[in-house]
Input
Amino acid sequence: MLSEKEMDVLIEGIYLGVITEYNLPENLYFAIADRLKDGVYKGFGIDFTKLSKDVDTLVKFDAKDLELLTELRENVYMFSAAKTFNEVLDFKGAMVNEQGEIKPFKEFKEDMLSLDEQYNKNWLRTEYDTAYGQAQNAVAWNQFEKNKDILPNLRYSAVIDANTSDICAPLDGICLPIDDPFWNTFMPLNHFNCRCLVTQEDETVTITSDSEVGERTKTPSEEMQSAFKINSGKKGVVFSEKHPYFSVDKEYKDLAENNFNLPIPDED
Output
């Protein structure tokens, strides 16, 4: 992430009021975006520049894949902007003590470094894993669509062991047509660190009945965070609009709609 010198500039800028929610630090924004894009590109199997410019990749990928990767890339930038905005708000909040007084700079710096470690080490690691996994499943969905004439059904496959979640275990083995609305909600990832996969199968498999699906999705429906109730391949997003970072107060709505005044590069 940011170098020690860059962090010092960021901390001083927030303390002096130069960096605010209306004037976000672009270097932090790009550092977050670059990390998450790396996860997307590795999960997808190719980076944006190569897919958009190298015709040799069309052997494996096509125009639909490029369209999907373009959407995932833009979503990552939007998420990174929203995350930067939320960070700066929290950083500003750390300047004030419980009595409503401005903290001494040294104390504020210690608190900010602790917050930065939470945001850009602990949480970013999980967000990277999510970007990687969602991109994997998104490009897999494109492949499912391309092959659905001969392989029209999909099967949910959970890793069953001591770490299997209450969300994934009931879904294991459910087999439904690719066009079933089940896949709009329950296409992995279905939670942070989800290890589930979906396999594509032919028309000879036994389809899970509606009643069984209804029974087996009760617990997952209740326990899944709304941000994961998406199909990344169909929606073209890594992080859905339900993610808490995208929820801003009314006074910031216009700012959010303009990507918090942060640029999305045409190339990278």
Observations:
- The longest strand covers residues 153-157.
- The mean pLDDT is 95.
- Residues 105-147 form the longest helix (43 residues).
- The beta strands are 153-157, 175-177, 197-201.
